[in-house]
Amino acid sequence: MRQNDSDAAAGRAAPALVSERGRRRPVADRTAAVRRLLEDPDTFGTVLLLAAVDAFGVDCLGDASDPDRGPWHPATFRDEFARLYGATLPPGNVDRLMAAVLLVTTDVFFCDLAAFAAVSLALARNDVDADRFDLPDVDDCLWAVVEAGLLSPPDEDDPAPRFAPEVRRFVRELLAEEGFVTVPRFLQSVVAPEELAAAARHAHEHADDPALFAAVYDLQKGKAADAEALVCAQVGELTEQLARLPLENGTVAGLLPAGEGRS
Fold first, then answer.
1. pLDDT tens for residues 211-252?
2. pTM of the entire structure?
């Protein structure tokens, strides 16, 4: 998707922002509730993006009719949130907001390894240092893929792999390096289970001893289940934050698909 396709893409950012008149909170209560979320260093990128779209409209994501006008600058978001809600966004929240904006206005997360790494670190609520190129771990990638699926759902009619080969290779090697022998289900859109099995066997020091390899394999199978459980906990946390986000122009009902994050 091109950068100047942002207005069409913006519709994915707020799939549940539909009319819900008659259920609004008093202005002071609503302002305080939004400010608390904006200033909370643990607020997810999805919540920050929905707050921005609700407050400023999809124009803050860019203008499809003007290829020279992209999304707002981070400083603009900071200033406008301060003006409207009196909120001071922590740097990490700005990073997560801009990562979410990138997801709904471009496809670089899926096709560029550097962007994938940076967005994964930001969405997973890590501190991002612009002067240092850090790499995400499996848990970071796992959450980023889940949140990207919420903000930029895949085209079910397009059978082509969504992630570029360099991204898939990176995640596969990361899984093997961290001792995963099975792919967590939320990452199977990036790495096929059979790909990891081959990579794990190749990388494992006990691969020449089938019995020992099988024993180690059994011990490490639980890593995928642990990673999936962490995602389930994060989805629960995201759901709780969404419930606390008082949208003026809509509702977040239906944003999370039924059963999302459940084991």
1. 665 666 666 678 888 999 999 999 999 999 999 999 988 776
2. 0.80
C-alpha 64/C-alpha 61 separation (Å) is: 9
State which residues form the domain around 48: 26-65+73-105
Q: Is residue 91 part of a domain?
A: yes
CB atoms within 10 A of CB 222: 12
Residue 179's region, left for phi above 0, alpha for psi from -120 to 50, else beta, is left
Structure confidence by residue, pLDDT tens digits, 26-77: 577 899 999 999 999 999 999 999 999 999 999 999 986 777 888 999 999 9
Tokens of 178: 């961290």
Would you state the structure tokens that stand for residue 141, as one six-digit string? 């990638």
Task: Determine the Cα–Cα distance for residues 226 and 52; give it in Å rounded to an integer.
Answer: 33
241 within 8 A of 44, measured Cβ to Cβ: yes
In a shared domain, residues 92 and 44: yes
Give dist(CA 162, CA 168) in Å, integer.
10
d(CA 152, CA 154): 6
Give yes or no: residues 120 and 204 share one domain: yes
